[in-house]
Design goal:
Number of strands of chain A: 10
Strand order of the largest sheet of chain A: 3-4-5-8-7-6
Number of helices of chain A: 9
Oligomer: homodimer
Order of helices and strands of chain A: HHHEEHHEHEEHHEHEEEE
Distance between the termini of chain A: 45 Å
CATH class of the largest domain in chain A: Alpha Beta
Shape of chain A: elongated
Structural class of chain A: alpha+beta
CATH architecture of the largest domain in chain A: 3-Layer(aba) Sandwich
Largest sheet of chain A: 6 strands, antiparallel
CATH topology of the largest domain in chain A: Chorismate lyase
Helix content of chain A: 25-40%
Radius of gyration of chain A: 21 Å
DNA sequence: TGACCGGACCTGTCATGACAGGTATCGTCA
DNA sequence: TGACGATACCTGTCATGACAGGTCCGGTCA
């Protein structure tokens, strides 16, 4: 691991354990240089990373200041429900309701960038958090990836971790967050009345080549899950508010 | 404006106008150095910024590659509905339903970090996008800031811009996104049936000193607005998924 | 023809040095 | 005692140089 990553992770750790609390000032750059026996480069790179994450702010004459205690989660926490639950110290559970190979319907085909009717593998899972119903997951995989799932017990854990172990490497993902009314399927499995509000996270995941591999439509029980973000003046946030046409 | 900012903005602009499309490779660092007659430092800093924004990816032997066409919006786009609408080329409208000075109720007091019963100024506005109903905004300001609003015509435009012009400087903000059922008030003004799903964005905005100034509870009509995010392997995202206890 | 290897090129990483500009503190002077 | 100004310190910014490691292409050899 590169030095600047070590430094950044060390500071994140200090925040995590409460050694650095919100509002407390970090050591100055020169002190950090001495502490890590490095030049100013890696130290500044580490601070820049933390600044881009919205963890620290300030500067310009003042030493940097911690401005949040919520440490951004790594890549997989937004992609893998299991990895996320583990990261926050909760337990994830799942019950597979369906695993099917079928032609892509008109809704998912454009999301995956494939022709309507091309074969896809679809998984329907009910997901739990600490044993409580939390989310209904509709996952669609392109055929050559989805086929791997027939050798996997989807009840046993993370599909994402399994696919990674089989050499499927996710690299980028797009997320869309909105609210929808529970349809009959949601209603049945999440045990809410039809039409009641659900928080939806749609996502498409791609490999480094840009090939779309999976499309998710995850619907959370409000009251169980939400999304949050810290926002500072000097950093452009990757979260965007969109208007639908 | 610093050179690295100029370079970053220039690349963003090239993406905006379509000169650089998704998947197309950027010029190499050395070419950019020559183009801007600068050393490698500013160029790398610009690329690092864009990478943190999730705009470009790649590297490590390969020249960087554009991986999204959605350019992150600056700070104010997540805080000001009017600024956001302008940024995406839509028109924002508003009708003020209420402007009141009253004691803080038990819901907003903890959000603002003030005592229950301390006075706050609350604004209720119905907001339009291109003339269509889009969102019901419940804004609460601490007294000394909110008082400024009594000198302002809330129907005329951006409260945020007005407060800035009066010297109120926002610096950081926290956002929580979830889904809620329309309550009677939502139902009446957004013209949906009670209990139907709404996308909610709660936010608290603070000054550089950390003083909380405003709390918003904005409820969007789903189908009008959503939130989106690009996510890459090597960058920690500031968006977090949270479990409610 | 296909596999393999080497070199050109690129980025990642780090060191060192330098100057400008903002911040805060402390001492001085009115 | 209070206001003001100089100074030390800090960060922002940029230049230059260097080496390691990854990628890609083309040429060579089997």
């Amino acid at each position: 691991m590169a030095l600047h990553e070590v430094i950044a992770e060390s500071i994140r750790e200090q925040i995590r354990v409460g050694e650095l609390t919100i509002g407390s000032a970090l050591p100055s750059e020169s002190q950090l240089c001495e502490r890590w026996k490095s030049s100013r480069g890696p130290v500044r790179q580490a601070l820049a990373t933390l600044r881009a994450e919205g963890v620290i702010t300030g500067g310009s004459g003042k030493p940097p200041v911690v401005c949040t205690t919520s440490i951004p989660q790594p890549f997989d926490s937004l992609l893998s429900y299991s990895a996320w639950a583990r990261a926050i110290g909760r337990s994830a559970g799942q019950r597979t309701l369906e695993l099917a190979l079928r032609p892509a319907d008109p809704l998912v085909a454009p999301k995956l960038g494939i022709d309507e009717g091309a074969r896809v593998v679809q998984v329907l899972r009910l997901r739990y958090l600490d044993g409580e119903r939390a989310m209904l997951e509709r996952a669609t995989f392109v055929e050559h990836v989805g086929r791997l799932l027939f050798d996997f017990d989807c009840d046993s854990g993370s599909i994402w971790a399994y696919l990674q172990s089989r050499g499927v490497n996710f690299s980028t993902a797009s997320h869309i967050i909105d609210a929808v009314a529970a349809d009959p399927l949601d209603s049945e499995h999440l045990e809410v009345t039809e039409g009641s509000p659900l928080l939806r996270q749609q996502r498409t995941a791609r490999t480094a080549d840009g090939e779309v591999i999976e499309y998710h439509d995850d619907r959370y029980l409000p009251g169980m899950v939400s999304f949050s973000l810290e926002n500072t003046l000097d950093v452009r946030t990757s979260l965007m508010r969109n208007a639908k046409p």
